[in-house]
């Protein structure tokens, strides 16, 4: 008599869970790669309008907020590592990993908050809350943290696009980021759900964004991005030198008679809090 071996309990489920986890990781890494392509040196500005769709799809596939936060952290590390390769010149590989993880924490907070919102509210409200949460996490990373690390904001990627440039005076970089993430959230909704109401709401949001961009189209020529009289700029790059070092480098190049002198951020400390240092700069 021929017998059949019964499958081990949980074996199919464990393989299915492993496959889902692997797919989520691949989606997150794909989103990080697409988002990085929107920044230099690639400068594919249009990529920013679709780059986050794989990340949002992955976040909608998980049932745990901690898992969503882990995926957000992974996205942040992979995205920043590709966007900011110059950090390798400032940190060793061991310390760079920790630094990237610290910078990526706001992305983890966004992922956790977005997952929580989707569990608590209907399908339409999170469509607008997703870009709000993204901008809030961006603000925390760029303005609220001790790092004040304003690199790699999605809103910066639209500079090469003439219509995108016209949006900055009206919306600022955070407003442009909001529009981009809203478009990504709408696209992710169209891909992931069959609910008619949610799809209509997503299509309406996309139509509103396209209409706004069309209205901004005539404004592109009113923004003076190029001066009729170019300025001569002198850039002094010395991250570790004090005020005396920056002063000597500037005076050494003063023969060029620049119209504008640019120093590194936090150069010479907080000049507004030091009248003596401010007086040296003014002289």
List the SSEs and their pairings.
Blueprint lengths: L10 H27 L15 H9 L3 H19 L9 H28 L4 H20 L17 H31 L3 H21 L16 E3 L7 H10 L7 E3 L12 H8 L1
Helix pairs in contact: 1-2, 1-3, 2-6, 3-4, 4-5, 5-6, 6-7
Features:
61% helix; 9 helices; two-stranded parallel sheet; mainly alpha; 2 strands; 283 residues; globular
Spell the H/E element sequence. Answer: HHHHHHHEHEH
With strands numbered from the N-terminus, the spatial order across the biggest sheet is 1-2
Query: What's the total count of β strands?
Result: 2
How many helical elements? 9
Q: Helical content, roughly? A: 55-70%
* Residue fraction in strands: under 5%
Largest sheet: 2 strands, parallel
Mean pLDDT score, rounded? 86
Please give the radius of gyration in angstroms.
24 Å
Question: Care to give the gist of this entry?
Answer:
With 283 residues, the protein is mostly helical. It has helices spanning 11-37, 53-61, 65-83, 93-120, 125-144, 162-192, 196-216, 243-252, 275-282, and strands spanning 233-235, 260-262.
Q: How would you characterize this protein structure?
A:
It is a single chain. The protein has 283 residues and is mainly α. The chain is 61% helix and 2% strand. It contains nine helices and two strands. The protein has helices spanning 11-37, 53-61, 65-83, 93-120, 125-144, 162-192, 196-216, 243-252, 275-282, and strands at residues 233-235, 260-262. Strands 1-2 form a two-stranded parallel sheet. α6 packs antiparallel against α7. The longest helix has 31 residues, at 162-192. The radius of gyration is 24 Å and the shape is globular. The termini are far apart. Residues 5-12 have low confidence and may be disordered.
